[in-house]
UniProtKB/TrEMBL annotation:
GO terms for cellular component: plasma membrane. One of its GO terms (molecular function) is cobalamin 5'-phosphate synthase activity. Its cofactor is Mg(2+). The keyword Magnesium applies. Keywords: Cell membrane, Cobalamin biosynthesis, Magnesium, Membrane, Transferase, Transmembrane, Transmembrane helix. The gene is cobS. It catalyses: alpha-ribazole + adenosylcob(III)inamide-GDP = adenosylcob(III)alamin + GMP + H(+); alpha-ribazole 5'-phosphate + adenosylcob(III)inamide-GDP = adenosylcob(III)alamin 5'-phosphate + GMP + H(+). InterPro entries: CobS. Belongs to the CobS family. Its EC number is 2.7.8.26. This is Adenosylcobinamide-GDP ribazoletransferase.
Length: 270
C-alpha cells in the first residue's frame, strides 16, 4: 500500500503543480508505473476546476465561472497538456518531414500554428462547458445544496478529465515512442510499455465516474475512442509513433470530444 501511495504521488507530481510529500521523488520505477493513476489525477484536476466554477457561479456569473474553471485547471497542471497541444500544432502545421516535425516540436518558442491552436481549443472548451450546465436536470428543481444542483455537471467534468488521460495511457500501450528520449518530458513514463495491471487500473479509474451517471453518458466514450485512435494513427503516419507533446494533444482533443459527445447524448438521447 505504501508503494502504491508513492506511485500515486509520483503521478500527481508528474502531471500537476500540486504539492506532494517530501518522500516523493523521480524514481524511475515509480514513474514507469505512475500511468495507472493518470485518470485518478484527472479526478483531482476536475474537482479543482469544478469547485472554482461553483464559487464564481454563486457570486459572479456563469460565464466568468466557466472561465475560472478553465484557468484553475491550467494553473493546476501548469498548462502541461496545453503546451503539448500547442507544440503539436506548430510541428505538424509547419513541418513536412519527420525530422522537421520533431525539430519544431523540441523548439520552446511558440509559433503561429501553436497560438492559433491554443486560442481555438480554449474557445471550444469555453463554449462546450458553457452549454453543459443548461442540460443539468438538477437545475429544474434546485435545492439549497449547490453541489447537488450541479452534481451531473461535476461528474461529467471528472469523467472527461479521467477518460481523456486514459487515452494517453492507451496510446503508450499500443504505439511506439519516438524522438530523442533524453530531451522528452515524457521519457520516464514512456521508457517501457505499461503493464497489464497499470492499464487495468487506469481503465477502472477512468470508468468509475460513470457508475454515478446515467448509462447513456457512456455512449460519449465511443467518439473519444475513435478520435483518439485516428489521432494516434495520424501521429504514426507522420513521425512513426508519438511524443510527450502528442500525449498532451491527445488529452486536450479527447476532453473536448467527450464534452461534445455528452452534449449530444443530453440533447438527443436522454
Amino acid at each position: 500500500m505504501k508503494k502504491e501511495i508513492r506511485i500515486f504521488f509520483t503521478a500527481l507530481m508528474f502531471l500537476t503543480r500540486l504539492p506532494v510529500p517530501k518522500f516523493t521523488d523521480h524514481s524511475q520505477e515509480y514513474l514507469e508505473k505512475s500511468a495507472r493513476y493518470f485518470p485518478l489525477v484527472g479526478w483531482i484536476v476536475a474537482l479543482i476546476s469544478g469547485l472554482s466554477f461553483l464559487v464564481f457561479n454563486k457570486y459572479v456569473s456563469e460565464d466568468i465561472a466557466i472561465l475560472a474553471s478553465i484557468i484553475a485547471g491550467i494553473f493546476t497542471t501548469g498548462a502541461f497538456h496545453e503546451d503539448g497541444f500547442a507544440d503539436v500544432c506548430d510541428a505538424f502545421g509547419g513541418g513536412w518531414t519527420k525530422e522537421k516535425i520533431l525539430m519544431i516540436m523540441k523548439d520552446s518558442r511558440l509559433g503561429t500554428y501553436g497560438v492559433t491552436g491554443l486560442i481555438g481549443i480554449l474557445a471550444a472548451k469555453f463554449l462546450l462547458l458553457k452549454e453543459l450546465p443548461k442540460f443539468t436536470p438538477d437545475l429544474t428543481d434546485p435545492s439549497l445544496n449547490i453541489f447537488l444542483n450541479y452534481k451531473n455537471f461535476l461528474l461529467v467534468l471528472v469523467a472527461a478529465h479521467a477518460i481523456s488521460r486514459l487515452m494517453g495511457v492507451l496510446t503508450i500501450c499500443f504505439f511506439d515512442y519516438v524522438t530523442d528520449p533524453d530531451t522528452s518530458k515524457s521519457k520516464p513514463v514512456t521508457s517501457s510499455k505499461p503493464s497489464r495491471v497499470t492499464v487495468l487500473l487506469a481503465i477502472v479509474f477512468a470508468l468509475l465516474p460513470f457508475v454515478f451517471l446515467s448509462w447513456h453518458f457512456a455512449l460519449a466514450i465511443i467518439p473519444v475512442l475513435f478520435i483518439a485512435w485516428r489521432l494516434a494513427l495520424y501521429f504514426k503516419k507522420w513521425i512513426g509513433g508519438y511524443t510527450g507533446d502528442c500525449l498532451g494533444a491527445m488529452q486536450q482533443v479527447s476532453e473536448l470530444t467527450f464534452y461534445l459527445g455528452v452534449l449530444i447524448v443530453w440533447r438527443y438521447v436522454i
